[in-house]
Every structure is written in structure tokens, then in C-alpha cells.
Amino acid sequence: MRGGARGGRHRRNNPLRRRSDVVEAWTALAVAALLLVAVPLAGVFAGRWAHADARTVASQLRAERHRVRAEVVGHPPATMPSVEGGRQQTVRVAVRWTPSGEHARTAVARVPEGTRAGDMVDVWFDAHGRSVTPPPNDTMVWQHTLTLGTCAAGGTAAVVLLGHSVVRRTAMRHRLDEWEREWARTEPRWTRRRPA
Description:
By secondary structure, the protein is of the alpha+beta class. The two termini are 49 Å apart. The chain has helices at residues 2-12, 19-64, 138-191; strands spanning 66-72, 90-97, 105-112, 120-125, 131-132.
């Protein structure tokens, strides 16, 4: 037991261990703790906030928009002029539907590319009768949640690592200054020169 205590005390009183070495060692320990605790917590909290916010927005949009089953009465263009990545392309075309107990209505709405005249499609409208995109579904809400949680965790990790690199650079500069001062005191004894 005593050897362990002496060993620990010996390391603290080691003349070769500079103050900057101690600061750098404690900083490395703090960085490890932050990477293991703060980074995941930042991701979880940001993800929870994003999930609650996205669910609220999706609920509001579902309340403001309504879906109708309509027949395509216009003629969609044969080809699309641009590509939207992996998303399904849509085209604007005239559609007709009949609400229960009312006359038939016609409007221009977005329908999936490749739809032909006579096809039945689901289209979404807002309270003013404008064609709108469907409200986000649960998959979209979770994608938003995971994206923001991952970005928050990554951003937190980047800040921690950037801070660590600044501390290491500062510690290295102090270490070199300490070595320079020590050498200025030690060199005359080694080389038998007189200090200037």
C-alpha cells in the first residue's frame, strides 16, 4: 500500500513534470469525459426537442390540410425537365373530385410523374383550396429527429476537440518557454560559461 502512495507522490513531485504537463493531462481527462458524456447527451436532447417540434408541426399541417381522392382529367407532360434527387417527381395537372353532397370540383394539383389521364390519385389541399404537399409522416419526423440529433452530437464533439487542440497548443508553448528558462539557468553549469 505504501509503495503505491509513494509512487503517486513521486509522480507529483517529479522535477521533469512541468505544470503544463499536468494541465495537459487533466485536459485530456476532461476531453474524454466530455466525449463520453456531453456529446451523447447533446445528441439526445437535440433529438428529443426536434422530435417534439416535428410532431407538433406535422399535427398542425394535418389539421390544416385535407386529402381527396381525385381523377386526373388533364394531360400531364410526357417528360420532366429536371431531376430532384431521390424524391419522386410530381407534375401539375388538372384533377376532379366530388365531395359528398356537393357538385364536382376541378383544380390544378401536383400528381406523381407517370400519372395518366383517368388515373385516380390522392391530392392534398389547404383550407383555401390550393394544392399543397402532404403533411410529414412518422418516417419524416424520425428522419428529422435523427438528423438534428446527429448534427448536435457532431457539433458538440467538434467544439470539444477544437477546445482540446487550443489547450494543447497553449500548453506546448508554455512548456517550450519553461524549457527555455530552465536551459538558461542550467546551460552555464554544463558548459562552464558565465551567464550573459
